């Protein structure tokens, strides 16, 4: 079972787990999101499907991101087209607010795509 984490004011914080790392607090999530979005120009986000359990406490989705490489995965920002898929699972509190979000991306496949386009060459 995952332990609830709190911020310095004692209120519960939203936790996002991405790449095995917890991003805790709204401010840290905004920093993470800005850094991620900066690596993909012309970003397009498509929800493939979403579903939830009976009481709505867990929601899951499959999605696809497409755009142009602006340095994702530490590669040179060559603006080559990229596309990758991922999944997200959310734990939702009784008041309907997000409690925890786990995200997995097809990073290996994306890296292979970048290698084929030559984006991994320095």
Number of domains: 1
- The structure class reads alpha+beta
Our count of helices gives 2
The first-level CATH class is given as Alpha Beta
Low-confidence regions: 1-12
Q: Work out the strand percent.
A: 35-45%
The termini sit apart by 43 Å
What is the N-to-C succession of helices and strands? EEHEEEEH
Number of strands: 6
Mean pLDDT score: 83
Major β-sheet annotation: 6 strands, mixed
Strand order in the largest sheet: 2-1-6-5-4-3
Q: What is the third-level CATH name, the topology?
A: Nuclear Transport Factor 2, Chain: A
Description:
Helix content is 20%, strand content 43%. It has helices at residues 26-38, 107-117, and strands at residues 15-18, 21-24, 40-52, 58-69, 81-92, 98-105. The longest helix is centred in the first third of the chain and has 13 residues, at 26-38. By secondary structure, the chain is an alpha+beta fold. The chain has a six-stranded mixed beta sheet. The chain has one domain (15-117): Nuclear Transport Factor 2, Chain: A (Roll), CATH 3.10.450.50. It starts with 14 loop residues before the first strand and ends in a 5-residue tail after the last helix. A hairpin with a 2-residue loop joins strand 1 and strand 2 (21-24).
Summarize the structure.
The chain has 122 residues and is an alpha+beta fold.
Task: For this entry, give a set of tags.
122 residues, alpha+beta, Nuclear Transport Factor 2, Chain: A, 6-stranded mixed beta sheet, 2 helices, 6 strands, disordered N terminus
Which helices and strands appear, and what pairs or packs with what?
Elements (H helix, E strand, L loop, with lengths): L14 E4 L2 E4 L1 H13 L1 E13 L5 E12 L11 E12 L5 E8 L1 H11 L5
Parallel strand pairs: 1-6
Antiparallel strand pairs: 1-2, 3-4, 4-5, 5-6
